[in-house]
């Protein structure tokens, strides 16, 4: 058999951090104690009430396919959640349960992006986005962002960078890797700008819930003609359950339903039942406690990195990442990350994983470990940069 990988795969880059992770595992097998600050998932377990609900449904045989759009009861719960949190009324018919935000993004783009069309996104950003676009034979068009716009796109940047192939704009707020948030005024202006230009607006709100000291605004507060991507992965602590949701404009409901039927059939049934238990008062109270822990970690890490001479020009206000400029110590952040792991046993993600915008000047720290562990990591980091 002759292997012929499709040309589409040519631009699919690997995660550079995986190289570090492999090495970290080897070092751990040799008995080294590695502190993992590269991992983009909460270290807290899925709350036990959610796990119990899944087990109950597996044991009672609720494991058959659901409707492609998901359990109506869960779609209704999500609709209530939007009313409670954002004061918007969203018909459950517009809400689709998906295999994570990843599945939501695939459905959103699958029904709306034509081949050769472009999707505008910020650089740096979450690396998989561009590959979803590529899979659909579209093209990601990157706009370099910096502290001036809190590492977010703005209405002005959207206008300046629009061309006749641009189909739409994707924003992620809070952002991965910077943890920064778009202001509600700028979000409203950006949505309006995209609408004026005749394009589509996609809002990745996966880190909503993990916002410290302020409130993130949903794109749905400003328009019902937007695609909103969200997930149970981060705030709800359910990464491996592979469950998220997509909210679409009315006119896309039918197309999304057909695509979901064909590509997923349905989202894992036990995960959907588990997610039903995620909205109880007790569970939300537990998630809020975890949020305060993340906030304390953010404060600790932020002050320590500044003390060590890292530049953090826009204070991260959400998610669990700090994107720190390490150019006082290196002009090659990938090498910096590899040497830091090798010499001091601290794993971080190099800027290279998030784009080509001064990527050699940045590394991403994930505060998905305890303050005690971060304290050790900071001591090791200090030794590393002062040697
Ligand atoms: C910004 C962003 N969007 C989407 C995803 C995908 O998340 P999910 O696990 O829900 O598929 C991630 C995962 O890290 C992310 O950081």
Helix-strand blueprint:
Layout: H1 16-29, E1 35-36, H2 48-59, H3 72-86, E2 95-98, H4 100-110, E3 118-123, H5 128-135, E4 139-144, H6 155-161, E5 166-172, H7 184-196, E6 200-204, E7 227-231, E8 244-247, H8 253-263, H9 269-276, H10 281-307, E9 321-325, H11 333-344, E10 346-347, E11 349-350, E12 362-366, H12 371-386
Parallel strand pairs: 1-10, 3-4, 3-5, 5-6, 6-7
Antiparallel strand pairs: 2-8, 7-8, 9-12, 11-12
The structure holds pyridoxal-5'-phosphate.
Pyridoxal-5'-phosphate is lined by residues 40, 100-102, 126, 172, 176, 204, 206, 231, 233, 239, 244.
Quick description:
The protein is α/β, with parallel strands linked by helices.
What number of domains? 2
Number of strands: 12
Which small molecules are bound? pyridoxal-5'-phosphate
Shape: globular
CATH topology of the largest domain: Aspartate Aminotransferase, domain 2
CATH-assigned homologous superfamily of the largest domain = Type I PLP-dependent aspartate aminotransferase-like (Major domain)
CATH architecture of the largest domain: 3-Layer(aba) Sandwich
Class by SSE composition = alpha/beta
Strand content: 5-15%
């Amino acid at each position: 058999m002759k292997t012929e990988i499709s040309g589409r795969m040519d631009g699919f880059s690997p995660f550079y951090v995986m190289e570090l992770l492999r090495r970290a595992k080897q070092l751990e097998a040799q008995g080294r104690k590695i502190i993992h600050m590269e991992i983009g998932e909460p270290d807290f377990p899925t709350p036990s009430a959610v796990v119990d609900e899944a087990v109950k449904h597996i044991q009672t045989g609720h494991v058959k396919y659901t409707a492609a759009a998901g359990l109506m009861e869960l779609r209704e719960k999500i609709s209530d959640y939007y009313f409670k949190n954002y004061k918007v009324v969203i018909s459950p018919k517009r809400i689709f349960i998906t295999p994570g935000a990843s599945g939501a993004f695939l459905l959103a783009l699958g029904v709306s992006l034509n081949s050769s069309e472009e999707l505008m996104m910020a650089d740096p950003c979450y690396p998989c986005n561009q590959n979803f676009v590529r899979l659909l034979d579209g093209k990601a068009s990157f706009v370099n962002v910096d502290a001036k716009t809190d590492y977010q796109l703005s209405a002005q940047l959207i206008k300046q960078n629009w061309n006749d192939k641009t189909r739409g704009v994707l924003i992620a707020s809070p952002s991965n890797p910077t943890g920064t948030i778009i202001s509600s005024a700028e979000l409203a202006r950006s949505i309006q700008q995209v609408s004026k230009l005749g394009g589509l607006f996609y809002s990745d709100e996966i880190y909503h819930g993990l916002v410290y000291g302020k409130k993130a605004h949903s794109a749905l507060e400003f328009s019902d003609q937007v695609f909103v991507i969200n997930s149970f992965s981060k705030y709800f602590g359910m990464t491996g359950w592979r469950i998220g949701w997509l909210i679409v404009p009315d006119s896309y409901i039918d197309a999304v339903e057909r695509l979901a039927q064909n590509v997923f059939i349905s989202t894992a049934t036990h995960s959907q039942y588990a997610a039903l238990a995620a909205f109880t008062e007790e569970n939300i109270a537990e998630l809020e406690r975890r949020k305060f822990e993340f906030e304390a970690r953010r404060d600790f890490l932020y002050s320590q990195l500044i003390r060590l001479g890292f530049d953090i020009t826009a204070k991260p206000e959400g998610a669990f990442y700090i994107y720190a400029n390490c150019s006082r110590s290196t002009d090659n952040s990938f090498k910096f990350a590899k040497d830091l792991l090798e010499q001091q046993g601290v794993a971080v993600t190099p800027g290279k994983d998030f784009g080509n915008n001064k990527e050699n000047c940045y590394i991403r720290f994930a505060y998905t470990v305890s303050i005690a562990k971060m304290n050790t990591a900071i001591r090791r980091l200090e030794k590393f940069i002062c040697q």
